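Aim 2 progress update. The chain analyzed this quarter is reproduced below.
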Amino acid sequence: MEEARNAHLVWTRRSSRCQNDHCVDVSRYPTKVEVCNSAARDTTLSFTDDSWRTFLQALRNTTLQLPNT
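Predicted structure tokens:
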């Protein structure tokens, strides 16, 4: 039943900063979010609603620790 609920795509958003069709696509489903590189669509990261919200909140609060580059 869960798989059937997630089969319906709600929306997809492509990164506004992409070059040569190497973009990050974020797709929203009823109970999950999937993230992929548009150049490698066969590899997808899947997040529950709660984990995605936690990630976005950490970005907003700048509490997300990113590695030094």
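Strands lie at 11-14, 24-28, 32-37, 44-48. The CA atoms of residues 30 and 67 lie 32 Å apart. These observations will guide the mutagenesis experiments scheduled for the next reporting period.
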